[in-house]
Amino acid sequence: MFAQFALHERLLKAVAELKFTEPTPVQLAAIPPALEGRDLRVVAQTGSGKTAAFVLPLLNRLMGPAQPRADIRALILLPTRELAQQTLKEVERFAQFTFIKAALVTGGEDFKVQAAVMRKCPDILIGTPGRLIEHLDAGNLRLGAVEVLVLDEADRMLDMGFAEAMQRLTAECAARQQTLLFSATSGGNAMREVVGQVLRDPLLLQLNRVSELNENVVQQIITADDPAHKERLVHWLLGNESFQKAIIFTNTRVAADRLYGHLVAAGVKAFVLHGDKDQKERKLAIERVKQGGIKVLVATDVAARGLDIEGLDLVINFDMPRSGDEYVHRIGRTGRAGAGGMAVSLICHTDWNLMSSIERYLKQRFERRVIKELKGSYQGPKNVKASGKAAGSKKKKADKKDAKGKPAAKRKSAPRPAGKPALVSDDGLAPLKRRLPAAD
What we know:
The chain is of the alpha/beta class. The protein has helices at 9-17, 25-35, 50-62, 81-94, 111-119, 129-137, 154-159, 163-172, 188-198, 227-240, 253-265, 279-291, 324-331, 352-362; strands at residues 40-43, 74-77, 102-105, 124-127, 148-152, 178-183, 203-206, 217-223, 245-249, 270-273, 296-299, 312-317, 341-347, 367-368.
């Protein structure tokens, strides 16, 4: 029960109102030390309840009588607009019986309106790195009084190229008393460097290993001959699998638009989501899917983080993601909070080695599946290395030989008079046409 935590009674009232009963493992592990003021480095799978694990201790720290504020007291930094919007909703739900105010600053919204919001100094500012840096450069953002800094999905921010922006924003929060860093993956060397720079004597909470992620999700691969074959497989899966909602991932915006067009032409109620869509279109896409008006969302990796859509139980990787961490976040859109789900990856010959690398990263083997009606000629490489990757055959350079098996003799060009240009090509064989003088 949440009553076991030393939370303010108004926060416990909100938890009860929201019908939160049993804390998840990440909440049980992270909330007590966070309430004590410890810096935390938390690795826990997507959909495990990480947001509440940092929002409740943060709100508890900021509790107090309503009074005018001159500074922002907490900053929550996230990689995408969608995740930032969902985090704001969670903060507002847990803070509904308090006087704590939160504000959102992300790209795609009116810059001047955001500047006016920050002048009111909300207790908690939730934002994405790019837009926050723009406000910092414009003199609209002051972070000198921030007490608590939260870096959520920090590994994704590094993947998206926000390392420099993260470092600059954390440096602006120099007076902070606590830093909480959450992610779904370990993040490798780049993450270790960030941890060393921004955390002070952190407590590491590794709630799961990568190989244990999404254990409730059935993970399958289906081989395909080419993109057109993949499209037919997508249509078959959407027409024959039992699902409430589905998301189909592509690696490029062009591929997402093309697949979306084909689905709509076939009568599938779908929406497309990628970086070229403006904020209104992105909000509309997510709301339509959440409300059930649309069952299928076609998206690039902009949607791989932060989407929490109830009933999303089918993920199709039209293109194999480029890394194991991206794969983890894609399939993390399903199987959330203990629910079941299915992830199907469509594999051409160009996807095989990526797929094998991800299997090794996760230390598991995906289930191989064949759809009889659409079985293609490509069923995987003929020869496979111990790593699972395709074994390529190196072509040996052969000497040119004549019909008798002897090396062919090089032809010698006939001698030409001195000063007369040769009318042959670079290989000394093919005759060239004499060029006419250029016109004046």
